[in-house]
Design a protein that fits this description.
- The protein is mainly β.
- The protein is built from three helices and 30 strands.
- It has helices spanning about 1-20, 385-390, 400-405; strands at about 30-35, 35-40, 45-50, 60-65, 65-70, 70-80, 90-95, 100, 115, 125, 140, 145-150, 160-165, 170, 185, 195, 205-210, 215, 230, 240, 255, 260-265, 285, 310, 330, 345, 355, 370, 395, 415-420.
- Strands 1, 2, 3, 5, 6 and 8 form a six-stranded mixed sheet that branches. The protein has a four-stranded parallel sheet with strand order 26-28-29-30.
- The relative contact order is 0.05.
């Protein structure tokens, strides 16, 4: 009897252990490792997703189209978010054609990865997909990529040239930011927009021609592109955004098409090689500091119809010798022409009502100021430099000199003379 009981117990134990080994995979996602690659398994859907391994991946990685786990065949359809993130020892990745989705930052920080081919089924490039892949030089895209996330190639410091898929209609924010070796990008013909800082800090980029049809440009678009010499804007652009070419010291040639209505703040700040600029009368909105620090700017104009010159507009444009103020102008902002050391004369239009503090400060060559209005324009004590007030000449209309001598600020001009 005891023998039978022992036999029965043994048989139950064997059956239980067999049942466990036959079904180690639950219907929900389980993690398994096959041939050194970790997968999240969905037995119900018979699919597997490549995921991050406990130990970083290294060397040449081959992602198969299917794996077998406990006699169950699973098709590998996805590479999960961050699957290879930070795996600096990965040198190549061969991706099976069954893959249709690759998650956010899947290859981020794969610093030794030099080239990669994406399978035909992938239609979207996720955020930060190749971010900080410092050795990446070549990417082959499938033809059907229609969407790209932000920062896909950010920090890819070895990327020299790239042709984006023709089906894309936008270059999102930070796409090529900090790609310090990038010299050429072939943009899609159907492109409509370029996001914030899409090419910022691309220090080897020399020329950019934006395709016709692009109407939306993001701020900081080319900020810090220190070797950029030429930007060609299409007639579809109506707004030049904040800081678009800020800190581009090599920029010499930029066209402002007649379609542009607004140039936002510091769009060309510190473009120290820019020597001339022409603004058509379509431009009616100017931001602060648009040309501040353009130390080589010799020739510039202001559009008819402009009512305000914002603060810091031409600040430290040391070579700007002359500029004509529009007859519609009502105010000149603080420090608008501060540091324009070559400016010799200025004629204030009759429409002008106020001049801000330091507007013409440090303009030590400004000797002739023409003020035709009977009522003096409102100024502050430092709107003009001491050199201008002590050594320059304020030209006023015949019979109006008393009005200026009685004004507590204008009377600081030692030489107030009648206009001829």
């Amino acid at each position: 009897m005891k023998t039978l009981s022992r036999l029965a117990l043994l048989m139950l134990t064997l059956l239980f252990s067999t049942a466990l080994s036959a079904a180690p995979i639950k219907l929900k996602k389980d993690k398994v490792v096959v041939d050194g690659i970790a997968y999240l398994v969905n037995a119900k859907k018979e699919t597997a997703t490549v995921t991050k391994n406990q130990e970083p991946y290294v060397g040449d990685i081959v992602i198969p189209k299917k794996v077998t786990v406990d006699s169950l065949t699973l098709y590998v359809e996805e590479i999960g978010s961050g699957a290879f993130s930070g795996c600096s020892g990965v040198t190549s990745i061969d991706i099976a054609e069954t893959i249709t989705k690759i998650g956010t930052g899947a290859f981020k920080g794969c610093a030794s990865l030099t080239r990669i081919t994406l399978p035909k089924g992938v239609s979207e490039l996720a955020n930060g997909l190749f971010e900080d892949c410092a050795s990446l030089t070549e990417v082959e895209f499938p033809a059907n990529v229609t969407k790209m996330g932000t920062g896909v190639f950010k920090g890819c410091k070895s990327l020299v040239e790239l042709a984006l898929p023709s089906s894309l209609n936008t270059v999102p924010a930070n796409t090529f930011s900090e790609c310090s070796s990038l010299k050429m990008v072939e943009l899609p013909i159907a492109l409509k927009s370029m996001g914030t800082a899409a090419f910022s800090q691309c220090t080897s980029l020399e020329m950019m021609e934006i395709p016709t049809g692009v109407s939306n440009l993001g701020s900081d678009l080319f900020k810090g592109c220190t070797n950029l010499t030429t930007v060609v804007l299409p007639s579809s652009v109506t707004v030049i955004p904040d800081d678009m070419c800020e800190d581009c010291p090599s920029l010499k040639d930029v066209n402002i098409p007649n379609s542009v209505r607004k140039i936002a703040k510091q769009a060309f700040h510190n473009c120290s090689s820019l020597d001339s600029i022409y603004l058509s009368n379509s431009v009616q909105d100017l931001g602060t500091g648009v040309f501040e620090g353009c130390s080589s700017l010799v020739s510039a104009n202001l559009p008819n119809g402009i009512k305000e010159i914002p603060s810091d507009m031409f600040k430290n444009c040391a070579l700007l010798a002359a500029i004509e103020l529009p007859v519609t102008l009502t105010s000149i902002g603080s420090s608008a022409f501060e540091g324009c050391g070559s400016l010799k004369s200025i004629s204030l239009p009759l429409s002008l009502k106020s001049i801000g503090s330091s507007a013409f400060d440090k303009c030590n060559s400004l000797i002739d100021v023409y003020a035709p209005a009977a009522t003096p324009v409102k100024i502050s004590g430092n709107s003009f430099s001491k050199v201008t007030m002590k050594e320059g000449i304020l030209h006023v209309k015949n019979g109006m000199t008393d009005n200026y001598y009685l004004d507590k600020q204008w009377k600081k001009f030692i030489n107030i003379v009648k206009m001829d």
